Amino acid sequence: MTARPASGEAEVLALCVGQPQPFNGAELSAIDKRAVAGPVAIRSFGLEGDMVADTKHHGGPDMAVHHYPRDHYAGWDPWLGGNAVLACDAPFGENISTAGLTESDVHIGGRFRLGSALIEVSQPRQPCWKIEHRFGRMGMVKRILREHNCGWYYRVIEEGEAQAGDVIRRVETGHEGWSVARLFACLYDPSQAATAAELQEIAALERLCDEWRKKAAKAIAG
Fold it and tell me: How far is the CA of 201 from the CAs of 25, 89, 111, 114, 215, in angstroms?
């Protein structure tokens, strides 16, 4: 762990929120998020006005705010064949949209100042079938596992307020050597499966959410 500030910032292109809506038959989802005009409050549970439908797999303090880099859109566009969903405010259900910070730049436990709020990277985002259903395209989850373009979640350390046009600025690196991309690859990409030593390190990452630490501990146990 390091408390040393590190370079790393990006302009906030949009802050997005959504409410549960019919998604797949009787199932609800809040993946269809829309950009907020003006300031939005950032609370311990997430952005004011944002909700989750599936509280078993989403939401809670360790998944309060979802960040997905707009940097990945250029790679998705030709792969998706010009899918119209990519032009939405938050095609991947993200709360924060930026360009200039990706999974390789951001570390587990890294802290960022977003407006007046202080947020901390808690875990990568684990992709699920809802992304493929939203885009109407199979194979997206497999591509994310291969490319490690998963996005990530924050927990809220200090509540505050932010808006589009603000700069999200790193104030603390977090766990050195453990970028979101590396951690995701170790636990989800079969071609880069974690070694026993890496699993031990992951299980000991203090700022990684408990669920992912347990994944590593379970893998160690066999």
Answer: 42, 37, 20, 29, 12
Q: Which of 87, 83, 123 is nearest to 210 (CA)?
A: 123
Element holding 47 (H helix, E strand): strand 46-47
Strand bridging mode 9-17 / 21-24? unpaired
Closest to 162 measured CA to CA, from 201, 202, 103, 112: 112
Total structural domains within the chain: 1
Residue 21 lies in a domain: yes
Rounded to the nearest 5 degrees, what angle is found at the Cα of 89, between the Cα atoms of 87 and 90? 100
Which pLDDT score, from 0 to 100, does residue 7 have? 66
Q: How far apart are CA 22 and CA 154, in angstroms?
A: 26
**Domain range enclosing 165:** 9-173
- Find the CATH number of the domain harbouring 40: 2.40.33.20
Name the more confident of 165 and 54: 165
Evaluate if residue 195 carries a pLDDT over 50.
yes
